[in-house]
Write a structure and sequence with these properties.
This protein has about 140 residues and is mostly beta strands. The protein has one helix and ten strands. It has a single domain, classed as Immunoglobulin-like (Sandwich), CATH 2.60.40.
Length: about 140
């Protein structure tokens, strides 16, 4: 009976796992002395339950943080946040001037055309491996290949 109960639990919880897809993951080239880079993408949740991006990591950086831009009086400032909510059947966009990933203490400059490996960890959906496609310094959006 225990096994049957565990199987039912797995079937019930298995249907609730969100299915997050990553679209247009990109970054900008960095100057030679830069120690940080930003990552942008669209997180699209195809599942019936909301999910949350809780962390990220990359072998190209010491750590990856989740950040947002907030207005503090007349000044825009970056703030670290504990993650991003991705609504069921919805999406969440990481973009310049908004929510983004900060790759801290990068190990080498990002160059135009590089592919930077990144692992995203979701509360419900587990880990998703992606690559940030690096565009020119100052790029304002992902170039489609």
């Amino acid at each position: 009976m225990r096994l049957a109960g565990a199987l039912v639990f797995c079937l019930i919880t298995g249907t609730a796992i969100a299915q997050v897809e990553v679209e247009n993951a990109w970054s900008r080239a960095t100057p030679g002395a830069a120690k940080v880079a930003a990552g942008y993408m669209t997180l699209r949740n195809k599942g019936a339950a909301a999910d949350r991006l809780v962390s990220a990591s990359s072998p190209a950086a010491e750590r990856v943080e989740t950040h947002v831009h907030v207005k503090d009086g007349e000044v825009m400032r970056m703030r670290e946040v504990s993650g991003y909510e991705i609504p069921a059947k919805g999406s969440f966009e990481l973009k310049p001037g908004g929510a983004h990933l900060m790759l801290m203490n990068i190990k080498a400059p990002f160059k135009d055309g590089d592919r930077v490996p990144l692992t995203l960890k979701f509360e419900r959906g587990g880990e998703v491996k992606v690559e940030l496609i690096v565009g020119k310094a100052g790029a304002s959006k992902h170039r489609h290949h």
